[in-house]
Amino acid sequence: MSSIEVKHLNVWFDDKQALRDVNMTIPNKGITAIIGPSGCGKSTFIRSINRMNDIIPSCRVEGQILVEGKDLYGPDVDVTEVRKRIGMVFQRPNPFPKSIYENIAYAPRIHGTKDKRKLSAIVEHSLRRAALWDEVKDRLDKSAYDLSGGQQQRLCIARALAIDPEIILFDEPCSALDPIATAKIEDLLSDLKDEYTVVIVTHNMQQAARVADQTAYFYLGELIEFGDTTQLFERPENELTERYITGRMG
Amino acid sequence: MRVMSRNAREKLYFNLFRACGGLVVLTLIVIIAYMVIGSLPVLSLDFLTEPPRRANTAGGVLTPLVGTIYLMAIVSVFAIPIGVLSAVYLSEYQGKGWASHFWRIVVSNLAGVPSIVYGLLGLALFVTFAGLGRSLIASGLTLGVLALPIVISASREAIKAIPPSVREASIALGATKWQTIQHHVLPYAMPGILTGVILALSRAAGETAPILLTGAAFYMSSMPDSIFSQFMALPYHVYAVATQTMAGMNGSPVVYGAAIVLLILVIGMNLIAIVVRKKYREKYRW
Amino acid sequence: MKYINRTGALSRVAGRTGLKGFDGAPHLILFIITLISATVLVTVAAFLILGSLQAFRVIGIVEMLGGTVWNPTSFNNPAFGMLPLMAGTFLVSFLAAVIAIPIGLGCTIYLAEIAHPKVRAVLKPAIELLAGIPSVVYGLFALLILQGWVAQVFGLQTGYVALNGGIILAVMMIPIMVSLAEDAIAAVPRELREASYALGATRWETMRSVILPASMSGIVAAIILSIMRAVGETMAVLMAFNQTPLLTLDPFSGVQTMTATIAIEMGEAAVGGLHYSSLFAVGVVLFIITLVMNTVANRIMLRYSEAYR
Fold it and tell me: Cβ separation of C16 and A60 shorter than 8 Å?
């Protein structure tokens, strides 16, 4: 049960508050989209879930995020374990400047898988899962930098899948991609949602409408509305949400 | 008409600038040519494998060459690990506060301090205060202090060039900060660090003034037997032979030969650095 | 509700991340290493000042900086006036700058704006190599070759004069100046250049009225840093002319620079004696001069890097 329970989440960067008292429960499995105008705190929110904000020195977090009832910000939590269980894919493809194989094998290796055959199996499985295997199976030892942008992004997804996370966070994964590459990623997302809890930040409302089961709307650091995607887009309860999705702001 | 004169003036200026460029290249060629021609009579492999003889007026450069290699080894052992790891700390752990600013100022200023001043430091700190005497180790450590700011600033530049997104990718996979540094930051920065290290070493190999004050000897009949003994070194050898022997002052091939060996050593290292840098720019196109 | 501060105290990082993610040890070790190198670097200044204290105390700052005679080994009447040494350093550096600045800037402009990219690809590394040649090699050239040319051209009995040093220092300065100044010109945004061409300006007009003014602070910084190299140079100066501490600005005379003074006199000065200490005092003055020049250059450079960002 990998639902994500967010309770009274507040985030500051120095004195500037980026998130204000966010409360929501992201259900197990399926895709949850986070939308909102730029600067609304949607990236900060998703980066709180795998504690990526920890690496920003000026960042301060209050509140709780519970996964399987356990607070990710609790006192005896191992941050690396959190990030192992909660994968992340970033705005721009950021493969390591290593071979395709090494990109995927890196994370299993640092988490203890040393056996070569096991690693190869993981690499193949992850690449298949990310719909990239057929395109790269003959050149696993080639640099990841030789791949196209869309392929690189799928490689990053495969890389996240390699340590078998329960939750995968996507921070605007298509913003640097062309429409065809975007469509491939969206197909992939729909494939993944039966197995993983997927949270995706997007500035593209059509994308949210196409792929998400639930959608949350953030505005100025606050969660304005959260609900079923169809309901949120067709019958928004909050006036702010309605104004955003009908394009009168943002 | 007006256009014509504008173009003519432009042509004149451009030719002037071309002449300046040509002059600089010509200087390089002239200096190297004189060294090569002057050293032709002695230039052979024997020159490298024979020690100097007859009070430095004949024989080869084995003893000074070995001394210089020892010096570079001492610099490598002390300055490189400390310099590189300090750079890692400063770029990856140190925040952006006053301390970071202070460091930039210290490193940038020390890189510009005249080498003779480092010689003074070596004399006061290593030779006298630490009681090492005029010795290989005192000179090596002095050159190490001189190389330290060069290594630190080159390493910081190389580390800074790695985009933060690569660090994020590693952290997001559950790697610790140290793992991220070990598996990603250091390996990707390594060519850049290497370039800086080679340049720092070649600078240390070519310096005369610091070792003049801290332990280089005019003549030694044997190799240094420990790090606490005096030593001969190539750059000091060139200076000593040229200014303190009649043969040298008259332009004996021995002195040109020593200069050529030093030139090849230093320029060779610089060339390697240029090649490494070029290859690395091709490998990591962030 | 929990309050988590992530500004990074060591113990807290270790405690929070658990054993597997323990990152305290490398952090601590790296911190200690950094502390060591900080200590070493700060020691440079500390030992220099410590060594010079005796001289400044016994002789007095005013006498040292203002005295016109440098004769520390005189038995009856030792004099520790640094003015002749400063004049010597000033004279050779000034001569070097006068020769190097026009040629260096011309070469920079050629390299940055005129040279064919293929020529440039060879020339730029070649000039960097020129900067890497050990100073003792330049010194040797000045001692054995250049000196004769100087004597011949100016009809002197001997070429071991300040001018010989000035010329060889100019040769050493130019590569540094060119490579830094070229970086400054390369940093000028292309849009500025194109705007000027679009207005019908020729290449030279564009250079003179757009590119050079825009990169002026970087060029000035490059000049200062290359002069700094001349001021701090020891070996080439030592080998280029007879070291005689005269208070003169005559380029055809022998002079004695601060760096050369330290190099030649340290061997004969008794450790811990007044002469020894006075040479450290010369070192302190040299250190301060380069510090000031470096700071000025950095200030100027910072301004240009901020202008186009």
Answer: no
The set of residues, in sequence order, having a beta carbon less than 8 Å from that of B112 and lying 6+ positions away, is C225, C228, C232, C290, C293, C294
The confidence score (pLDDT) of residue C45 equals 84
Give me the pLDDT at residue B255, please.
92
pLDDT computed for residue B155 by the predictor: 93
Both tokens of residue C10?
């060591």
Q: Which residues of C touch A79 (CB under 8 A)?
A: 16-17, 21
Q: Do B176 and A80 touch (CB under 8 A)?
A: yes
So where are chain A's domains? 4-245
pLDDT of residue C307: 59
Please indicate, yes or no, if residue C49 is contained in any of the structural domains.
Answer: no
Looking at domain B47-283, its CATH class is mainly alpha
**Domain range for C253:** 79-307
CA distances (Å), origin A102, targets B9, B187, C21: 59, 14, 22
Beta-bridge mates of residue A12 = A17, A60
Number of helices (H), then strands (E), belonging to chain C: the values are 15, 3
List Cα–Cα distances, B77 to B82, B144, B197, C232, in angstroms.
9, 9, 12, 27
Q: Bridge partners of A222?
A: A219
Predicted pLDDT of residue C301? 80
Which of A78, A110, A111, A163 to mutate to test binding with chain C, by most C CBs within 10 Å of its CB?
Answer: A78
- Cβ contact A33:A216 at 8 Å: yes
Look at the domain A4-245 and name its fold: Rossmann fold (3.40.50)
* Chain B closest-CA separation from residue A200 CA (Å): 15
Q: What is the pTM of this model?
A: 0.86
Q: Is there a contact between B255 and C153 (Cβ–Cβ < 8 Å)?
A: no
Q: What is the mean pLDDT of residues C264-282?
A: 91
Q: Which two tokens stand for residue B20?
A: 């300046």
pLDDT at C16 over 50: no
**Helices marked H in A111-178 — which ranges?**
116-129, 133-136, 149-161
Where residue C202 sits, what CATH number does that domain have?
Answer: 1.10.3720.10
pLDDT for the residue C308? 57
Residues of chain A with pLDDT under 70: 1, 248-250
- Token pair in block for residue B201: 């070493």
Has residue B237 got a pLDDT over 70? yes
Q: From chain A, pick out residues whose CB is under 8 angstroms from the CB of C8.
A: 57
Q: What is the rounded average pLDDT of the residues B263-283?
A: 86
CB-based contact B85 C30, cutoff 8 Å: yes
Q: Residue C309 pLDDT > 80, yes or no?
A: no
**Among residues C243, C46, C59, which one has the least CA distance to residue C139?**
C243
